[in-house]
Amino acid sequence: MLFLAGSPAPAHGGSWRHNNQSDRAWMALPLNRLKSSVASPVFILLASEVVAKGAMFLSSIPISRLYTPAEMGVFGLYISFATIISIVAGISIQRALPLPRSDGKGFILLLIALGVIILTALLTGLFFTVAPASLLMAVGADHLGSAGLVLPLAVLGWAGFPILQMWLSRTGRFSTLAWSKLSQVALLGGGQIAFGFLHLGGIGLALGDALSRALVLAPFMLRVFRPAAKRLRKPERFTRVALKILMEYKRFPLIVTPTLLLHSIPAAIMPIAIGTHLGTTMAGYWTLSAYVTNAIFGISVSFAPYLYSLWSKSVHSSGLLSPAYVIRSSRPLLVIAAAAGLGLGLAGPFLFTLIFGQEWVYAGQVAQILSVSLAFQILGGPLILVLSVLNREGWNISMAVIWCALSGLVYYLIGAMELSLLQAAGLYATVTCVVYVAYVVLALVAGHLSVQRKRGDHDPAFSAGAS
User: How many structural domains is the chain composed of?
Assistant: First the structure.
């Protein structure tokens, strides 16, 4: 993650070049504040995120010994469908929850989001109950089996849990937010291990995931029920007010949700593609390797919200993000990306055999290939946020569409060319690297344009010459 901040304009003229000492002092200020209080909300959330990711990785060690690759493949398919459906179900309203100044308006937004989630969960259950086998095969869900019946509960948990987290952030209950995250991870690992001893197979992994989220979400839902019922006593008035508020924040369901969906589809469809064309055993190898690389990626970028707030504050104060500063402040990311990429790239099969057992050595070979794309994700992933900071959402959406189109091509080629799992992993890693290199270039270009625009605003002669 980067700071990507531009220096403020010189008080008495001068150039727009960065001053290294002032930059370091500016960056040290928030870090010193963070160090001064380990009880700060930033530290609490950051620590809980890192601990949660680490706990998920540790729990995967006994899980890999309790479940077969084919059962892990079923779980991978479950995660893919849960990811896609929950993004649609949430309609991104949770991102709007901190915005209303009135708690009443925020609570109505909360009820809208929960209502859409419950409706989507019911429709999901209806689909997987009555859909014919030919339709399930067409969408790649024919290998889900009984795990498909868990998806309605998964939709409630996957879409509802982020809403719970955002509502706790809005109300300032950061310690509760951290404990909810840690509780969900503990229930997830404990449930999946317990179901593994009961030999429930792939549905045990799915149940452990869905129940962990639902159990953490349930007390929150019960607490919301009474005030929600009071507001719903006058349905006509509530509907009128809700529609008005929804129109006020329509950019979230209309713009943010499609963007999130487009960003999620490339990774989500890979287990479906592999399960459809190569079988659930190969999908299981892919799922474990992706699980490990995603855990490393998540730990590496867990401080993204903190840095995002710093970038936004800098842009509001100075109006620019210098490309030179982007490159200079990204050095820590480069070190992390190189270490993660080289570590998995050089010792992937050995590490997987040592940690997960001989049965998963093939997953280590997949992780070895994915290590290249992991390095680019760690380095370039945060730069997607830079486009949002600089209001370049059009660029972001365009890249997401291109990425989805390329992922669709990968999906097609796996079946049409009868690729092996390692070949499919290589093709996916190549596409991912190209996309993230493009994001890096776009972020630097956007930063350069912000500097040029700022120079034009302060120098009429430069503006006239540029035009």
Answer: 2
